[in-house]
């Protein structure tokens, strides 16, 4: 077998875990690993066309004792470890040659393992004796070799034994030293095997598969299929009313109005705005920080008014930043005559948060890192208690690490989001077991010693959270583990710890992202672009671990990418599925109409119907506090937007209640709240320019 030098070096580096020769003889790929009865070679060489469902319960039989998978993996590690570097690639390719090819009928998108650079297909089911039987294939010989090793280790094991395998068990095979894309192949195939093992256990225990989470599937032609009532409510507004679009664009153009809106906006409004932007450029949908920047750009381009579609602190920020930029004459309008609150902003304005910062003021040197999603008044008052810098979910880690690097013995006090604070602490604990080289890639001035030393000096507020991200708790996480563990996982930094850990684990194998709304959107676009470049049939499934209002921007970005590739080459059948992990807390139980014939079979079978509230019914809000969609953001209605645009400039003072507040109040030190509240934001902007460290 001949290989070019670079490929050989990559493979050798991938599988190497020890330079010392082993005393144990190498195993032959055609020879079975230890079993007391039967032969693994038989299991791995018979035809593996779609294994039929087992007619018997999936209970491991006592008639055939099989070596535990972990022992098999250890023996595989010893086998490769006993070989010189140059021979490891040959042995890997020998394993590939021993792996039977899957029939073409099984090499389909439904059996693809997501997250692998090459195409990898996996089949798995429980046989009549209660053992798991696996088959795999790939269009890459190296990947086939990796698959063959995993099949040889896990084929014939009991379902619980398959679940007992930890990705760390693969490390002795040398994957930790290999190319990241190859490490992902090992891990993602293992995750796929474990998903099939969980399904086998559920079938054995008589547990029926639960209702899938609602989802939207975007096809290559841009068409959208909704699966589930919640998704149907979202899809309804992806093809907006053309008359409403024209009405809005005419008003915007006539009165020179710019619009800045948050990603979490009502889907009806987002659908209209996305379509209107093609005719009027001064419309921008983004996260909260960029909204104010975009408003300044619109003012520079000649817009006389800015409509802000978000919560109140966002319109306050836009007003203050425009004033700072010298555009005091540009009007800023919010979309409701009532207060548009935010659970995080409310937490930061509480007396408990003030107490948290008074404690910080007694522990110098201290720095307060405050989340952008808070009011200017809060930023101003906290800045006078403790030196304060603003952060976003995408730069918070870099901000904190840079602060610790610059100021000896610093105490950092983060707030108000408790989940994000806990997740940051968890991330730093994970970094303590990374190598110095890996830590340096995250921040050049840190190593294991510095990360370990800062843990005791990182403090976070423990009584504030976003009611949307609060939804992603234990029940949702367990369902994702059971049914969506092989999908791409996305999570906002504000989610509870279980969802954070799950997404961080997926991130290590190229299948997850944790960060801001923009980070999530970029992650989806990146993986779709990879699929389009490969140009093979594929189905990409993403679990959306943030507010569901993002779906409009996601669909628009996916359609745009599909369109950009349409004329360049003959397009493969590629689909993108966005899954909404809605908790059962957000599902109402509604009884069948009492007037229905109680004796009918329908009434007996369907005593209750699961209903996920739609856009106008609370959007899946739980009585326990979590919401699948932000009820505050939904106060920004299309009717209000059209009304304000049509009535501007509002010379009869009819729009005064919609004007964004200009904060003329003063702090306890006699300074203007608007000026002091902007200082932490300006500190962050300076940091982003001078220290562009990213994860």
Automatic annotation (TrEMBL):
Keywords: 4Fe-4S, Chloroplast, Iron, Iron-sulfur, Metal-binding, Plastid, Pyridine nucleotide biosynthesis, Transferase, Transit peptide. The keyword NAD does not apply. Pathway: Cofactor biosynthesis; NAD(+) biosynthesis; quinolinate from iminoaspartate: step 1/1. Residues 44-63 are annotated as: Disordered. One of its GO terms (molecular function) is quinolinate synthetase A activity. One of its GO terms (biological process) is iron-sulfur cluster assembly. Its cofactor is [4Fe-4S] cluster. Its EC number is 2.5.1.72. Residues 78-195 form the Fe-S metabolism associated domain. It catalyses: iminosuccinate + dihydroxyacetone phosphate = quinolinate + phosphate + 2 H2O + H(+). One of its GO terms (cellular component) is chloroplast. InterPro entries: Fe-S_metab-assoc_dom, NadA, NadA_sf. It is an enzyme of class 2 (transferase). The keyword Chloroplast applies. Pfam families: NadA (PF02445), SufE (PF02657). It is found in: Plastid, Chloroplast. Belongs to the quinolinate synthase family. Type 1 subfamily. This is Quinolinate synthase, chloroplastic.
């Amino acid at each position: 077998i001949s290989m070019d030098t670079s490929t050989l070096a990559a493979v050798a580096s991938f599988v190497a875990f020890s330079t010392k020769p082993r005393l144990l003889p190498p195993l032959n790929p055609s020879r079975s690993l230890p079993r007391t009865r039967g032969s693994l070679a038989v299991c791995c060489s018979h035809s593996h066309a779609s294994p039929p469902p087992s007619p018997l319960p999936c209970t491991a039989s006592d008639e055939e004792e099989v070596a535990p998978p972990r022992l098999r993996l250890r023996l595989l590690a010893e086998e490769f470890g006993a070989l010189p570097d140059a021979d490891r690639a040959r042995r890997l390719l020998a394993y590939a040659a021993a792996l039977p090819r899957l029939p073409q009928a099984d090499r389909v998108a439904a059996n693809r393992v997501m997250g692998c650079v090459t195409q990898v297909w996996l089949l798995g089911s429980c046989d009549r004796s209660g053992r798991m039987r696996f088959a795999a294939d790939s269009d890459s010989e190296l990947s086939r070799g990796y698959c063959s090793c995993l099949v040889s280790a896990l084929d014939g094991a009991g379902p619980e034994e398959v679940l007992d395998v930890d990705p760390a068990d693969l490390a002795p095979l040398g994957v930790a030293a290999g190319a990241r894309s190859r490490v992902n192949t090992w891990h993602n195939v293992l995750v796929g095997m474990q998903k099939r093992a969980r399904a086998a256990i559920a079938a054995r225990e008589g547990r029926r598969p639960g209702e899938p989470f609602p989802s939207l599937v975007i096809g290559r032609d841009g068409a959208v299929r909704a699966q589930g009532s919640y998704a149907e409510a979202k899809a309804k507004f992806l093809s907006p009313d053309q008359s409403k679009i024209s009405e809005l664009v005419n008003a915007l153009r006539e009165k020179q109005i710019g619009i800045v809106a948050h990603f979490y906006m009502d889907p009806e409004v987002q659908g209209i705005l996305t379509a209107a932007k093609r005719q009027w450029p001064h419309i921008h949908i983004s996260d909260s920080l960029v909204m104010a920047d975009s408003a300044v750009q619109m003012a520079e381009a000649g817009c006389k008014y800015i409509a802000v579609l978000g919560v109140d602190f966002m319109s306050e920020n836009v007003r203050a930043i425009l004033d700072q930029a010298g555009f005091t004459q540009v009007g800023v309008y919010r979309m409701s005559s009532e207060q548009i609150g935010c659970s995080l902003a409310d937490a930061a304005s509480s007396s408990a948060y003030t107490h948290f910062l008074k404690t910080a003021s007694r522990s110098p040197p201290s720095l307060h890192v405050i989340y952008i999603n808070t009011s200017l008044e809060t930023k101003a008052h906290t800045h006078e208690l403790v030196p304060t810098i603003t952060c976003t979910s995408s730069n918070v880690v870099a901000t904190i690490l840079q602060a610790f690097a610059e100021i000896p013995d610093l105490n950092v006090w983060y707030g108000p989001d408790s989940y994000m604070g806990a997740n940051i602490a968890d991330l730093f604990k994970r970094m303590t077991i990374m190598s110095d080289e890996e830590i340096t890639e995250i921040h050049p001035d840190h190593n294991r010693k510095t990360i370990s030393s800062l843990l005791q000096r990182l403090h976070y507020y423990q009584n504030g959270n976003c009611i949307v991200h609060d939804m992603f708790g234990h029940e949702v996480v367990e369902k994702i583990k059971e049914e969506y563990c092989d999908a791409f996982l996305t999570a906002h930094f504000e989610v509870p710890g279980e969802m954070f850990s799950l997404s961080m684990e997926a991130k290590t194998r190229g299948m997850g992202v944790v960060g801001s709304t923009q980070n999530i959107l970029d992650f989806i676009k990146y993986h779709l672009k990879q699929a389009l470049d490969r140009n093979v049939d594929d189905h990409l499934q993403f679990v959306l671990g943030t507010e569901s209002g993002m779906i409009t921007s996601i669909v628009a970005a996916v359609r745009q990418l599909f369109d950009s590739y349409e004329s360049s080459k003959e397009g493969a059948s590629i689909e993108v599925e966005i899954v909404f992990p809605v908790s059962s807390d957000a599902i109402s139980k509604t009884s069948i109409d009492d007037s229905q014939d109680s004796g009918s079979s329908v009434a007996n079978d369907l005593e209750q119907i699961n209903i996920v509230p739609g856009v106008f019914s609370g959007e899946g809000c739980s009585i326990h506090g979590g919401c699948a969609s932000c009820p505050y953001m939904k106060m920004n209605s299309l009717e209000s937007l059209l009304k304000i645009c049509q009535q501007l400039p509002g010379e009869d003072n009819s729009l005064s209640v919609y004007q964004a507040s200009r904060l003329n109040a003063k702090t306890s030190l006699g300074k203007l709240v608007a000026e002091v509240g902007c200082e932490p934001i300006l500190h962050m902007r300076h940091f982003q320019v001078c220290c562009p460290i990213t994860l």
